Amino acid sequence: MVATVAHAQESVGVATGKSEVREPHYTVWAYGVNGRDSVADWKRCENFPSVGACPDIFATINRGDDLIVMCQRPGEIVGGNPYWVKVFGAVTGWRAVWVASHFIDYPDDVLPNVPRCDFVGDSTRD
User: Fold this and answer.
1) φ and ψ of 22, to 5 deg
2) Are 41 and 50 in contact, with CB atoms under 8 Å apart?
């Protein structure tokens, strides 16, 4: 499998000349990948992403769709890969959703330059 990846890059703003860091962008290698979350129990979904904990499908993602990756964390094993990534983009309606990292077009389980997601405590979701 050939990876089609745009890693986090530093770029210089044309008008300001200031340096800025951009979030990592990736795509998936398959068609019909589910972008998941949970309306009823979002904390469970955030702390252990899985089909069961994140039953609500908010996006169907296809090969070539641009995804901005916010963070990653272990969850349900899919295709031998225990990691899930929290992503958003135009295809998700700019809503953050979970995608099994198995479907991300990258050869390793863990994505480079992507932080690990924090655990969610008892705070409310805003």
Assistant:
1) -105, 150
2) no
* Backbone torsion region of residue 36, taken as left when φ is above 0, otherwise alpha when ψ lies between -120 and 50, otherwise beta: beta
Single-letter residue type at 63 = R
Q: Are 70 and 87 in contact (CB under 8 A)?
A: yes
Q: Which residues pair with 92 in a beta bridge?
A: none
> DSSP states of 1-29 as a string?
-----B---EEE-TTT--EEEPPPEE-BS
pLDDT (0 to 100) of residue 34:
98
**Look-up of token digits 């986090």:** 8
Specify the 3-state DSSP secondary structure of 106.
coil
Mean per-residue pLDDT, 32-46: 97
Q: In this predicted model, what pLDDT tens digit does every residue of 60-103 receive, in sequence order?
A: 999 999 999 999 999 999 999 999 999 999 999 999 999 999 99
Q: How far apart are CA 86 and CA 114, in angstroms?
A: 10
**Composition of the chain by helix, strand, coil, percent to 5:** 10, 35, 55
CB of 19 within 8 A of CB of 11?
Answer: yes
